Amino acid sequence: MLLKTRVTGKLLARDLFLAYINQYFMNTNSFKTIWISDLHLGSTQCQADMLLDFLKHTESEKLYLVGDIVDFWALSRKMYWPREHNTVIQKILRKARHGTQVIYIPGNHDENVREYDNYVFGDIVVKNSDVHTTLQGKKLLIIHGDIYDTIAKHHQWIARLGSKGYDFLIEINRILRLLRKLLGLRSQFSLASFIKYKVKNVVQFISDYETNIVQTLKDEHLDGVVCGHIHHAEMKAIEQFMYINTGDFVESCTAIVEHFDGSLELIQWQMQLESEALLEAV
Ligand SMILES: [Mn+2]
User: What are the start-end ranges of the E strands in 66-168?
Assistant: First the structure.
């Protein structure tokens, strides 16, 4: 009920006003809700610098972490935890302490967190899945999505083997990205996603994934889904359902946001450092 009154009431005007102030004077983008997933903290794949920049320049009333936040699979192979990964966790905890409602939906790389369904850790609530109602009244299933991935569900050893091959690709991509950075090139070319889309059965895999999710939406009488898992950001209609995938902070650095009018948007994050440098120069 509270959500609905906000659409027409004075509270919305206040929210819009604060959003405006934040954007133009604080260089912060305000949203009703933010969804991010597949951060893979604890692995070399995580683009922590982009993630920190995103967390620094955005704020929301509600923040959903849609799984594969900490990559325990990678951590079990090799201990890797640079300082920036701590800073990410601290930033998220700080948001939770300062009034952002943070909801952690575990994924398959952090599946051990699923044992703590409905527990609250330092203002962050763990939920294995959730239903979010947008300001336009759409009911969205929020879930990581691995249970709809038939390979990950039934043949975990194949999935892990596949993940190693994929890790290798991403490692090459990371080196390429570093080289591009050193050379001052800013193209968003991604080797892993390039190869991924060259492989025909990956397309089939994504389509099966979507079909499985839509079946659940039908069964549960929901309007749409916000999920992650397959590292492919997208926002589209499948039949009458909204299929929304957050993407990741490994390659695409994408997020889904809900604005204060209840509309949803897929955003690809760009480093905000340039505008900051400009502000400092003034
Ligand atoms: Mn996953």
Answer: 101-104, 120-121, 124-126, 130-133, 139-142
Tell me the CA–centroid distance for residue 264 and ligand 1, in Å: 22
Ligand 1 (ion): residues with CB under 5 Å are: 68, 107-108, 229
Ligand 1 centre to CA of 219 (Å) is: 23
Q: How far does residue 274's CA lie from ligand 1's centre (Å)?
A: 32
Question: Does 2-280 carry CATH code 3.40.1280.10?
Answer: no
**Ligand 1 centroid to residue 157 C-alpha, Å:** 14
pLDDT digits (tens, 9 = 90+) for 86-143: 999 999 999 999 999 999 999 999 999 999 999 999 899 999 999 999 999 999 999 9
Tokens in use for 230? Answer: 């397959």
Count other C-beta atoms under 10 Å from residue 107's C-beta.
Answer: 28
- Helices 191-198 and 200-220 sit at what angle, rounded to 10 degrees? 90
Cβ atoms 103, 116 nearer than 8 A: no
Task: Locate the domains of the chain by residue range.
Answer: 2-280
3-state secondary structure of 158: helix
Mean pLDDT of the chain: 83
Asked if residue 164 has pLDDT above 50, the reply is yes
Find the 89 Cα to ligand 1 centroid distance in Å. 19
* Distance in angstroms (rounded) separating the CA atoms of residues 253 and 39: 9
Distance between Cα 23 and ligand 1 center (Å): 32
| 106 CA to centre of ligand 1 in angstroms | 9
Question: Is it the case that residue 63 has pLDDT exceeding 70?
Answer: yes
pLDDT tier at 1 (50, 70, 90 boundaries)? very low
Q: What is the pLDDT of residue 170?
A: 64
